[in-house]
Design goal:
single chain; mainly beta; Elongation Factor Tu (Ef-tu), domain 3; SH3 type barrels; 2 domains; six-stranded antiparallel beta barrel; six-stranded mixed beta sheet; 2 helices
């Protein structure tokens, strides 16, 4: 188990889901519907999840701001898009009502992650404390840089702190306590 608490973003909640401000979101974004495809009610979906295999025939998703419950009839890949069809929508005209709508899954249906890995929405809002006991602030944003994520910590006053999500810096994540313990390397604080 890695103390770096690798964060994954298989789905996004970033306000799109109308989720409560505290605690886990009720719905997580997994894709965005684009334009219709063919004559059988398929529509292109831009996939925004690391787990597209969970979107299969028979699975339920929620579409649009009103979270309309829909059952997937079929899925297949076409270039970078997933072609998805829903029960009850068998022609391009009927499914075109959902163009440019977000597709959600319930947060409590998300796949389990290995120990030491967390979804981004689980980390956002955590209180961050240094290994010296200093309260650093709240984790408000996660920047994906390619090499490693960078956590943006907003203190009660002063500029934000940028903390790399790497072993040796992220020491402990306690979701139940709503806290993350970190070791600040020299130069991470503005006053260093």
């Amino acid at each position: 188990m890695s103390a770096s608490s690798q964060a994954r973003q298989p789905e996004q909640s970033n306000g799109l889901a109308g989720s409560p401000e505290s605690g886990e979101p009720v719905f997580l974004v997994v894709g965005k519907l684009r334009k219709t495809h063919g004559l059988l009610g398929e529509i292109r979906m831009e996939v925004i999840t690391d787990f597209p295999e969970r979107l299969d025939a028979g699975e339920q998703v929620y579409v649009g701001d009103d979270h309309c419950l829909m059952q997937i009839r079929s899925v297949r890949w076409h270039n970078q898009y997933m072609l998805i069809a829903f029960d009850g929508y068998t022609d391009p005209e009927s499914v075109s009502l959902y163009r440019n709508k977000w597709v959600f899954v319930r947060a409590d249906d998300r796949p389990a992650l290995p120990d030491g890995e967390y979804y981004h929405h689980q980390l956002l809002g955590l209180n961050v404390v240094s290994d010296d006991g200093d309260i650093l602030g709240e984790l408000t944003q996660i920047l994906e840089t390619g090499a490693n994520d960078v956590y943006v910590i907003r203190p009660s006053s002063g500029p934000d702190l940028l903390i790399p999500a790497v072993d040796g810096v992220i020491l402990q994540v306690d979701l139940d306590a709503g806290c993350m313990r970190v070791h600040l390397l020299p130069g991470l604080r503005p006053e260093d």
